[in-house]
Design a protein that fits this description.
binds magnesium ion; 11-stranded mixed beta sheet; 18% strand; 32% helix; binds threonylcarbamoyladenylate; 16 strands; alpha/beta; 5-stranded parallel beta sheet
Length: 344
């Protein structure tokens, strides 16, 4: 299939919407990462997303809406609890996904057979225009090949999915860079299933104490069931092996430098302050105290590793688990298949 590359003019968005109305799949920019969108209310269209990404069918999708009123208009949930309404009023449009009990309108392909549905109102104006113009709501997982880092540019999408999808709307680089925070209100108390730019502290400030699912920070034991099916899969991985180093900045540099002396196939994902002192190739994701910039650049950095000739292993700083750091930690620990070297 020929993948059409579109811009963000009114005509481009109309064209993208007509592809979706005709049952196709289109990659669209959102403020978090690029999403691969299809009509969420049509199970046959949704199946095409799973095929293009090679995504396991038991991993449910997020339904993207263009206005809070879409929840009622398209009859998406069987209950819209007060806490969900408070979260929606506070954080939408924006990078928060809320899981609620689903209605019968949601096809099994979207919910992967679960009794719940994940809903998000993105703040990216192109995403919202496209949803509106399509006249429906859009199921959209991240627009990467399953297992690889989520795409934050149209080029990332093309590298993974060119000729497997109908079109890509190129809206430039994504602002946030990591996927939305996912919180479920189908349990009491509510539970964080995936950390993102909207932090636990921000959520608790408006709805009170929430739980953090074990799978956010720890490796699931064999046979343990994931509340969020996506958490059980290997994820965000470049071809090179990723290893996290839990140490202070100086020890990180001396460790990587001494490894590089005997093994020239290693490189580093690091902070601006480290670059001058590292002997191995260094890919910086921002200043050491600027978590938001680090989030924005993380997936591009993981993809860059595979473009450096001969590199087989990448060492990355182990991030803090606090605030936005929790989102970075959650992605990097999966990219590293939970391999961390502790240096006292
Ligand atoms: O920022 C984002 O959320 C991006 C953009 C495109 O909106 N989308 C995204 O979708 O990251 P995806 O499919 O890559 O991640 C959705 C996560 C998966 O881990 C999935 O298992 C979980 O949300 N999820 C979706 N529906 C769920 C449900 N009903 N119950 C539990 N987990 C659910
Ligand atoms: Mg994804």
């Amino acid at each position: 299939m020929n993948t059409l590359l579109l811009g963000t003019t009114k005509d481009d968005i109309k064209k993208a919407a007509s592809i979706i109305k005709d049952g196709g799949v289109v990659a669209m920019p959102t403020e978090t990462v690029y999403g691969l969108a299809a009509d969420a209310l049509n199970g046959e269209c949704v199946k095409k997303i799973f095929l293009a990404k090679r995504r396991p069918m038991d991993n449910p999708l997020i339904v993207h809406i263009s206005d809070i009123s879409d929840i009622e208009r398209f009859d998406l949930v069987s209950e819209f609890p007060l806490e969900a309404q408070i979260l929606a009023q506070t954080f939408w449009p924006g990078p928060l996904t809320i899981i609620m009990k689903k209605s019968d309108r949601i096809p099994d392909e979207v919910s992967a057979g679960l009794p719940t549905v994940a809903i998000r109102l993105p703040s990216h104006s192109v995403a919202r225009q496209l949803i509106k113009e399509s006249g429906t709501v859009l199921a959209a997982p991240s627009a990467n090949r399953s297992g690889s880092p989520s795409p934050t540019t149209a080029t990332h999408v093309m590298n993974d999915l060119c000729s497997f999808i109908d079109a890509v709307v190129d809206g430039g680089a994504c602002d946030v860079g990591v996927e939305s925070t996912v919180v479920t209100l189908a349990t009491t108390p509510p539970r964080l299933l995936r950390p993102g730019l909207v932090t636990v502290e921000q959520i608790e400030a408006v709805i009170g104490k929430i739980d953090v699912d074990d799978a956010v920070l720890f490796k699931l034991e064999n046979g343990e069931k994931a509340a969020s099916p996506g958490m059980k899969y290997k994820h965000y991985s470049p071809k090179a092996k990723v290893v996290l180093i839990n140490s202070d900045g100086d020890k990180f540099i001396s460790f990587v430098n001494s490894e590089f002396e005997t093994d020239s196939t290693v490189c580093a994902i690091c902070y601006d302050e480290d670059v001058a002192e590292l002997k191995a190739q260094a890919i910086s994701i921002g200043k050491s105290d600027d978590l938001e910039t680090q989030a924005k650049r993380l997936f591009d950095a993981l993809r860059k590793v595979d473009t450096i000739d001969g590199v087989k292993k990448v060492y990355a700083h182990c991030p803090t688990k606090q605030g936005v750091g929790m989102a970075l930690y959650n992605r990097l620990i999966r990219a590293a298949s939970f391999e961390v070297i502790e240096i006292e």
